[in-house]
Amino acid sequence: MNDAANAPDPTEAEVSEQKAVRLEKRQRLIDSGAEAYPVGVAITTSIPAVRAKYPSLEVDETTGDVVGLAGRIVHLRNTGKLCFASLQAGDGQRIQVMVSLAEVGEDVLAQWKELVDLGDHLFVSGEIISSRRGELSVMVKEWKIAAKAVLPLPNLHKDLSDEQRVRSRYLDLIVREQARFTVRARAKVNASLRATFAAHEYLEVETPMLQTMHGGASARPFVTHSNAFDTELYLRIAPELFLKRAVVGGIERAFEINRNFRNEGADSTHSPEFAMVEAYQAYGDYNQMADLTQELVQNAALAVADSMLVNLVDGTEYDLGGDWARISMYDSLNDAAGLSITPQTPADELKKFTDAVDIEITQPTHGKYVEELWEHYVKPGLDRPTFVMDFPVDTSPLVRDHRSIEGVVEKWDLYIRGFELATGYSELVDPVIQRERFVEQAQLASQGDVEAMRLDEDFIRALEHGMPPSGGIGVGVDRLLMAITGLGIRETILFPLVK
């Protein structure tokens, strides 16, 4: 590691001093009749375009190609009659610029040395050449500040702390290739999701983020107040109930890439604000939705990595290819724990099993006991992509009863690299049963379960007009990036919420 990497971070006093010097330079620019923040500059090309056009030049080769381009100064070296700088484009590609006394004259060279700083956005016009060291360069004939930076950049030879990365993502994007890659990977994932849905004739729709009643998932909501309507509103925890209304209305294949908000904990896989894609298909079921989900994830991996064998940030590889296993929640639990639990096993008996492994259940029901036991015994051993099928009925109030197994519903959760990535249902479309499930949830809420759903009369009314048998899925977009890259959730979100 070089001396620059070992250099201590500047103190607040040093940063303040540098800011004062740069503000003085800003004023000198303005006083000279120049602009510190011009409305535009005469760009004719970009740094990536120049690098693509001239992948290799001979040492000291000239091209006769005069260009105008701009970038942020990330390296600066003033050496007498010849000054050097490196300009960086938004994608991280760089090009050297050379400011020579012979080309620009004594006054312009002196202004360069006096007014230009690391971090400034700079416009240059000049000929594309190769330097004596064979480096692709612009021999500057004219330069202009495009935006004066009054605060210095962090040490470009030293890694930012995790806290700096999330609190000052703009700096992270400037200095770190992985941050820039992740933003582009996320854009490719979203484009891939849309392309896959389009290939299956889905329509993209938008549903409310402010709702008069929260629903669609078991979660604690954020609460706000509308002055215009003088009513309490909730930030949505899921778009499910509105997307189902769309299916009732005849949009038989609907999806939404959406922002959801859940007033719960934050850790390496959870964020209070997160992105999901939800989709519903009339005349589909949870098996068809599992097929679609596998296709969505594998296509996203291809879009980002050009392979289903993805390289994770820890240096390991992970294979998303092939057909993924589908296992029963009850069968896999019994195999792992050596038990004989069925959907009819009483909650009191299940409590004995959770007590034996020190699992505490705050709202004890059969389903919550089973799911907590499954997470204890089975989840840690899941690495390969796996659909966990057929959940207890009392934890899945929006899901259809299993067509052949009493006491469970047609629901799966998809686990990749040990964390839950997606969930899928054969949707409950019977308004009578749905009302009964909502009433059961309301009873749980009255007993103190803050995550229980409320009775949504308008949604029931929509179902009473007839919703066709349907399948539905919800896929975490942030977690999809985690699966493909190996990053934590705060790294996959461009500007995560931090305390």
UniProtKB/TrEMBL annotation:
* Entry annotated with the keyword Nucleotide-binding: yes
PANTHER family according to UniProt? LYSINE--TRNA LIGASE, CHLOROPLASTIC_MITOCHONDRIAL, LYSYL-TRNA SYNTHETASE
Q: What UniProt keywords are attached to this protein's entry?
A: Aminoacyl-tRNA synthetase, ATP-binding, Cytoplasm, Ligase, Magnesium, Metal-binding, Nucleotide-binding, Protein biosynthesis
Q: Which GO terms describe its biological process?
A: lysyl-tRNA aminoacylation
Q: Where is the signal peptide?
A: none
Does this entry carry the keyword Protein biosynthesis? yes
Organism superkingdom: Bacteria
Give an example GO cellular component term for this record: cytosol
Give the cofactor binding note. Answer: Binds 3 Mg(2+) ions per subunit.
Which amino acid positions bind Mg(2+) 2, per UniProt?
E420
Q: Where does the record say this protein resides?
A: Cytoplasm
Q: Which CDD domains match?
A: LysRS_N
* Stated name of the protein: Lysine--tRNA ligase
Q: Which family does it belong to?
A: Belongs to the class-II aminoacyl-tRNA synthetase family.
Broad enzyme group: ligase
Task: Cite the record's note on assembly.
Answer: Homodimer.
Residues annotated as domain Aminoacyl-transfer RNA synthetases class-II family profile? 186-496
Q: Which InterPro entries match?
A: Aa-tRNA-synt_II, aa-tRNA-synth_II, aa-tRNA-synth_II/BPL/LPL, Lys-tRNA-ligase_II, Lys-tRNA-ligase_II_N, Lys-tRNA-synth_II_C, NA-bd_OB-fold, NA-bd_OB_tRNA
NCBIfam families according to UniProt: lysS_bact (TIGR00499), PRK00484.1 (NF001756)
